Backbone:
């Protein structure tokens, strides 16, 4: 073959693939605070031992199959109109996605604390870290801890990546389970809630530690029962239990009665291998009036009152889910329109967030429902417990996150240390368990067969 005339020029390097920040990512990026990192904590328990090197290879392949999870923030001038994600072909140099720290006392607690510490930086790819920890509570078992930067990914997206890693590690493909079908509500109109112009209740301060960041407690509970074919779901029971827990906590701390709003995460994405990765959930606020909470607090003494509150809540959540709405509302859509430099929009977003603080919802509930994946890690076994927790940034300061695994409800209660101390978190968790049990008593008071486990 004849050589071409003139010098041979080296092949031009491929240009990086850039993806504009969606609305949720941009708002998260605008409101980052060093003292309260935006981390997602995911904790998985396996009955057998995991080989870190083999898991490292499995995660590398999972990230390759889900390239949107393997990103870093692209650099740019202050006057740019948008932030961009830069998709990478692999982890950046020096980034070890999977690590196996040396055994230490209280290993699970220490690993959990690291999950709530500074998030993986957005300047390096990927924004995910995985720790392999020997489970001291079960000899021969393993705990996997994932720390995720919430600006890039949400909990369900991370679980999809984890499911792919499990398939690669265990060598067994598995289709996600079909979502449960919700029983129709009979066409009832949702009862009116409190005025959206009335600032909702804040969680009463306990004895805050004063330190930065979040604290978290995890619990393994029975999935609450409900009558077979009930129009409300376990998710509605969790909403009612959260609202009643806060109402009781506030009353015990001398706070005046106020309406409560619980922000609920809604995720309509498919759970298959083609699931869109990123921040795909939308947020809706479920309101509770002072009168409803007062009646519901009678609890065990008046199960009919809790039952009525469950049905009202089901009507509201059904209506809220059916209304088409941008993920963070129309205001966020307008705020992130690329018509001004992104640095100016960031300052505006932070100012509006401070101004809107009194109208921020009381707490966040994120319920994934039944885990859609088997999470089969081959010789290490299938996951039989899984917790995840969402950030609890002030002024909200409290999040409740749940997932049903192996017939159990795995709950994480997470709070801002500026609001509560660990002892306060333990007392809140105890009250939550009692309020959740009250929703179960209300369901059984009507008689008939019961079931549990629907989201």
Residues:
């Amino acid at each position: 073959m004849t050589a071409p005339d003139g010098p041979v020029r080296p092949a031009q390097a491929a240009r990086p693939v850039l993806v504009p920040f969606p609305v949720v990512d941009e708002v998260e990026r605008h409101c980052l605070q060093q003292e309260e990192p935006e981390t997602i904590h995911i904790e998985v328990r396996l009955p057998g031992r995991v080989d870190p090197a083999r898991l490292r290879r499995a995660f590398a392949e999972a990230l390759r199959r889900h390239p949107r999870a393997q990103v870093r923030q692209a650099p740019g001038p202050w006057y740019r109109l948008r932030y961009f994600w830069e998709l990478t072909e692999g982890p950046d140099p020096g980034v070890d996605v999977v690590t196996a720290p040396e055994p230490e006392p209280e290993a699970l607690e220490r690993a959990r604390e690291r999950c709530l510490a500074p998030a993986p930086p957005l300047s390096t790819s990927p924004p995910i870290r995985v720790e392999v920890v020997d489970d001291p509570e079960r000899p021969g078992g393993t705990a996997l801890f994932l720390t995720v930067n919430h600006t890039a990914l949400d909990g369900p997206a991370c679980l999809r990546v984890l499911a792919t890693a499990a398939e690669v590690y265990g060598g067994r493909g598995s289709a996600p389970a079909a979502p449960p079908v919700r029983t129709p509500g009979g066409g009832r109109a949702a009862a009116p809630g409190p005025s959206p112009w009335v600032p909702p209740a804040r969680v009463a301060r306990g004895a805050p530690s004063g330190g930065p960041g979040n604290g978290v407690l995890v619990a393994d509970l029975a999935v609450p029962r409900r009558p077979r074919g009930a129009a409300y779901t376990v998710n509605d029971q969790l909403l009612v239990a959260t609202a009643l827990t806060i109402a009781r906590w506030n009353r015990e701390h001398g706070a005046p009665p106020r309406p409560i709003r619980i922000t609920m995460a809604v995720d309509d994405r498919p759970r298959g291998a083609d699931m869109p990765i990123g921040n795909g959930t939308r947020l809706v606020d479920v309101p509770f009036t002072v009168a409803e909470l007062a009646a519901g607090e009678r609890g065990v003494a008046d199960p009919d009152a809790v039952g009525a509150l469950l049905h009202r809540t089901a009507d509201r959540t059904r209506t809220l889910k059916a209304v088409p709405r941008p993920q963070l509302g129309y205001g966020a859509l307008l705020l992130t329109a690329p018509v001004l430099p992104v640095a100016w929009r960031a300052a505006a977003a932070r100012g509006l967030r401070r101004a809107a603080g009194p109208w921020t919802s009381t707490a966040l509930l994120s319920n994934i429902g039944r885990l859609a994946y088997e999470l089969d890690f081959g010789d290490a076994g299938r996951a039989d417990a899984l917790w995840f927790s969402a950030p609890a940034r002030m002024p909200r300061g409290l999040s409740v996150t749940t997932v049903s695994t192996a017939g159990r409800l795995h709950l994480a209660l997470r709070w801002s240390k500026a609001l509560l101390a660990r002892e306060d978190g333990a007392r809140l968790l105890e009250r939550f368990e009692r309020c959740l049990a009250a929703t179960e008593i209300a369901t059984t008071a009507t008689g008939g067969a019961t079931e549990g486990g629907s989201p």
